[in-house]
Design goal:
The chain is α/β, with parallel strands linked by helices. Among the domains are: 190 residues, Rossmann fold, CATH 3.40.50; 77 residues, Luciferase, domain 3, CATH 2.30.38; 104 residues, 2-Layer Sandwich (GMP Synthetase, Chain A, domain 3), CATH 3.30.300.30. It has a 7-stranded mixed β-sheet with strand order 2-1-10-9-11-12-13. The chain has a 6-stranded antiparallel β-sheet with strand order 14-15-20-19-17-16, with no helix packed on it. A 4-stranded parallel β-sheet has the order 4-3-5-6, covered by helices on one side. β1 and β2 form a beta hairpin.
Length: 532
């Protein structure tokens, strides 16, 4: 009997197929050299055996908080081979948000870079079931608040035998829980199956027209779905090479691309915009990169294409809904995010009653798969959120789009009370919680305003307690150690009162409509910088 093609949609099977075909080809190109498919298979086997000795197995959640290093890729593969559930942690998280992810995941083991131990120490009193740490690198300071958590040396993983784990997960099993701050509530853990991850990555492979000779350079974090799957996993499926770097740098991007011999790249719209704003150079068009995924596009994208000599493609998606559409290379309308892959998905634009609206009418984008398990399996430990998201048999994106008569989709707005800043989803409620913790703040409303480099900027309208004053600089310094850098508001507006309904609900649409006013304080305009 022929093997069901979906049975091949697991990380272990994809890697095994590639090792058999071209094991000596580079899978990862990093600052300290190449790692072949065969070497990555062996390293991930050792990591898997080492983790199994620590009790990691099918269905076990494991937190991973690492920078972009080869070991992160090996851990993602090792956990997948074991049937365990990876919980990647945004390396900017700290405070209550970090504690929430740790506790909600119910993980007992955390693999963490030694450089992030101070963040963990800050949240130590609020950690629940965490029992053990596996630090990567050398701890340079002692953290007494973490003394209750035994350490396992990372060398224990490296020294385990190179033996592939027996058995393995199916395409229906969970591969990861990815936390996304897409709503007003606390961050939700999106449950992702092997089939979901495979089809997200395979879609990236198709969109970019990747081939076995490509070197895909994308300075995106590996804790992010795009960095880990749209790039690394897409290369595994294709047989290409993924070039990783610690972080994106406007100053060195093109030099780095040339150094790794990149032929393709994935850039957030803001990243491409920053590159386009740099002073022109006579060799701009001599970059080795010939094709780029840019999400979202921006009005000057045609100039970007010509200046750097690249073809550009884009898409629309999220952790929950995958990336179900594509705007082909060098399509004429930068405002569109593409056509639906209707072989794999069905989609509609609906009104507030989930009734489909005509072409050209703005409504919510909803989607469902033609094959099971290729969209999110739900929200981790959140059945109410799952039911709400999958209302009436369709997964609701929370985004307002419209579709034209030719089937192209266009992003219009966000329906949820959420903010997307430079590729990161931000819960307004989580920011408001920290703003309201300042002793001089009576109440606040956090909302998005347009950014000059695509996506949104974070703005906070605050009401100061009677008889008190608050310098916006003091508010920013108060927030800085309490939240991720990308969540800290750029704009602050002090108001005598917030607009509200007769029942006391804050009317954020009024604040969004007013936007940045002449009396709004702008952190960037005043030269205030945030510490990394």
């Amino acid at each position: 009997m022929a093997l069901d093609p979906r049975a091949r949609q697991t990380v272990a099977q994809v890697l095994a197929d590639r090792v058999a075909r071209h094991g000596d080809r580079a899978l990862i190109r990093a600052d300290d050299g190449d790692v072949t498919y065969r070497a990555m298979d062996g390293l991930s086997n050792r990591f898997a055996q080492g983790l199994a000795r620590l009790g990691v197995g099918p269905g076990v959640t494991v937190l991973v908080m690492l920078p972009n290093v080869v070991e992160f890729v090996a851990l993602f593969i090792a956990l997948a081979k074991l049937g365990a559930i990876q919980v990647p942690v945004n390396t900017a998280y700290r405070g209550a948000l970090l504690a929430h992810v740790i506790n909600d995941s119910q993980a007992r083991l955390m693999i963490i870079d030694a450089g992030f131990m101070d963040r963990l120490a800050e949240a130590a009193e609020n950690l629940g079931q965490l029992e053990r740490l596996l630090p990567f690198g050398t701890e340079t300071a002692r953290h007494p608040s973490l003394d209750r958590l035994p350490r396992v040396p990372f060398a224990a993983l490296r020294e385990a035998p190179d033996v592939a784990p027996a058995g393995g997960p199916s395409y229906r099993d969970l591969i990861a829980i990815m936390y996304t701050s897409g709503t007003t509530g606390a961050s939700k853990g999106v449950m992702i199956t092997h089939a979901h991850a495979y089809n997200y990555a395979h879609g990236g492979h198709d969109k970019m027209d990747l081939g076995e000779g490509d070197v895909y350079f994308a300075p995106l974090p590996l804790f992010h779905i795009a960095g880990q799957w749209a790039v690394v996993y897409a290369c595994m499926i294709t047989g290409a090479t993924a070039a990783i770097t610690r972080r994106f740098s406007v100053e060195t991007f093109w030099r780095d691309a040339a150094r790794v011999k990149a032929t393709a790249t994935f850039l957030l719209g803001a990243m491409a915009n920053f590159l386009d704003r740099q002073p022109p150079r006579p060799d701009d068009a001599l970059t080795p990169i010939t094709k780029a995924m840019v999400v979202p596009l921006f009005p000057e994208i045609d100039g970007f294409r010509k200046r750097f000599g690249v073809k550009v493609v884009t898409t629309y998606g999220s952790t929950e809904v995958s990336a179900p559409m594509i705007l082909p290379f060098d399509h004429g309308d930068w405002r569109s995010c593409g056509r639906l892959n209707d072989e794999l998905y069905e989609a509609r634009i609906v009104d507030q009653h989930d009734e489909e609206v005509p072409n050209g009418t703005v409504g919510e984008f909803v989607i469902r798969p033609r094959e099971p398990w290729v969209l999110m399996a739900g929200y981790w430990r959140n059945p109410e959120g799952t039911v709400a998201a999958w209302r009436n048999g369709w997964l609701h994106s929370g985004d307002a789009l419209f579709r034209d008569a030719e089937g192209f989709y266009y992003f219009a707005d966000r329906l949820r009370d959420s903010i997307r800043r430079r590729g990161e989803n931000i819960s307004s409620m989580e920011v408001e919680t920290e703003v309201n913790a300042h002793p001089a703040v009576l109440e606040s409303a956090v909302f998005p305003v347009p950014s000059e480099v695509t996506d949104d900027e974070v703005m906070a309208a605050i009401v100061v307690k009677e008889g008190m004053t608050l310098d916006p600089v003091d508010l920013i310094r108060f927030l800085e150690p309490r939240m991720a850098r990308f969540m800290v508001p750029r704009y602050v507006l002090a108001l005598p009162a917030l607009p509200k309904t007769p029942t006391g609900k804050i009317q954020k649409f009024e604040l969004r409509k007013a936007g940045v006013t002449p009396d709004t304080w702008d952190r960037e305009a005043t030269g205030i910088t945030l510490k990394r």
